[in-house]
Amino acid sequence: MLDSELKKEIKEYGVSMRRHFHQNPELGGQEFETAKRIEAELDLLGIEHERVGDTNVISTIQGKRDGKIIGLRADIDALPVQEESGVAYQSKIPGIMHACGHDGHTAALLSAAKILTARKDEIAGTVKLLFQSAEELGLGAKAIVGSGEIDNLDGLLGIHIWNDVDSGKLYIGSGEQMASPVEFRISLEGKGGHGSASHQATDTIVPLASLIMNLQSLVSMEFNPMSDVVLTIGRIFSGENEEVRLGECYNIVSGRAYLEGTLRTFNDEDTERFREKILRMVKGIEMLYGVKSELFFETRVPAVYNDPELANIGCETCVELWGEASLDKELGKCMASEDFAEYCKKTPSMMAFVGGRYEEKLKCYPHHNSRFNFDEDAIDQAAWFYAQFAIDYLNKKGR
Ligand SMILES: [Zn+2]
Ligand SMILES: [Zn+2]
């Protein structure tokens, strides 16, 4: 097939696939129809594939020559969001929407499979395609790493269509890219009582308020000012029942209080430092106010770290395909997180951000918003980047 014909075909195919997945979104771990459709499309291309766990699909394209093994990863899950974008291809499933762009990633990786099949002669090694489930739940990458399926990979590329980057551009950074979120929950237990006799009770609201204020200053006082750390408390409540109506508790000293939040860091040392400090703080609150406490603390995923050598090859590929101006210089690292980080711990990996913002074409809303959408040209760009990067990597890295 002539290159121009292939280009046209890929463009149409990518958009039609994306719209199919957009209309039929499935939540993390439940992507059964999505996985079936991916397999059907791979069958049409004659590419072998296998299921890993319930809904991860891994396929292999063997090049004409022997060489290294490069992985390409797309996540395939949607979110529990009711779509309000108003587009003609809006989600048909109530309360579920592709609001992060994973429909675009899936379509782009299938398109890349088409390109790579057409250009098998140029592949000096093996390309593994990872269609990964449950990214939003932080479960899919762990399952694939745990299965041993990527043990023999020499490198891995992931892409995310990103609305903070202009359409037509890619951001490819080196080193730290996305943060590691820690989830913490603190429960306090005191003794409930009458609002008129607080001395007979042990209040938990004042110690909770103290914790809230102290947690905020912990970031400014205990972390290196050069380290990138952000702390957010997402929810608090007090009393026996979290559902009580307004005006029902004004006269009760609360015997229970609760908060939950997240801290995001870029390295394990900062996470460990936080764990020590929050533990110390909670113990201090116990002593000071005579309450009992319980602390839950969990690192959800590690930080995304881009291998500098892969990032170099990625930039070269991007410039080769679309010129120097296609490299976004502005994005930098961000505090969002991605379970792609699980792969980074295992094998040299790189996450590239493909621009989805095009304000003249469509109003841009943030990822996870019910009106989220992106410029569909990003699918085509992601597809060619996936494919060309794999070819370049295998050629450059040799046997
Ligand atoms: Zn997301
Ligand atoms: Zn995402």
Structure description:
This protein is of the alpha+beta class. It folds into 2 domains: 3-178 and 303-397, 3-Layer(aba) Sandwich (Aminopeptidase), CATH 3.40.630; 180-299, Alpha-Beta Plaits (2-Layer Sandwich), CATH 3.30.70. Helix content is 35%, strand content 26%. The protein has helices at 3-23, 32-45, 102-118, 140-146, 205-222, 268-289, 308-322, 341-344, 377-397, and strands spanning 48-52, 56-62, 65-75, 124-132, 155-166, 170-171, 175-178, 180-189, 193-194, 230-238, 252-253, 256-265, 292-299, 304-306, 349-357. Helix 1 (3-23) crosses helix 9, helix 2 (32-45) runs parallel beside helix 3 (102-118) and helix 7 crosses helix 9. The relative contact order is 0.19. The site of one zinc ion has 4 residues, from loops. One zinc ion binds at residues 100, 136, 367-368.
| Elements, N to C (H/E) | HHEEEHEHEEEEEHEEEHEEHHEH
- Which ligands, by name, code or SMILES, are bound? zinc ion
The Rg value, from CA coordinates, equals 24 Å
Cα separation of the termini:
29 Å
- Structural class category: alpha+beta
Tell me the name of the CATH class of the largest domain: Alpha Beta
CATH architecture of the largest domain: 3-Layer(aba) Sandwich
Give the oligomer, counting copies of the same chain as homo and different chains as hetero.
single chain
* Name of the CATH superfamily of the largest domain: Zn peptidases
Strand numbers in spatial order across the main sheet: 1-2-4-3-5-15-6
Uncertain ranges: none
Mean residue pLDDT: 94
Mind describing the biggest β-sheet?
7 strands, mixed
What fold name stands as the CATH topology of the largest domain?
A: Aminopeptidase
Shape, per Cα inertia axes: elongated
Helix content: 25-40%
Beta-strand percentage? 25-35%
How many structural units, i.e. domains?
2
- What is the tally of beta strands? 15
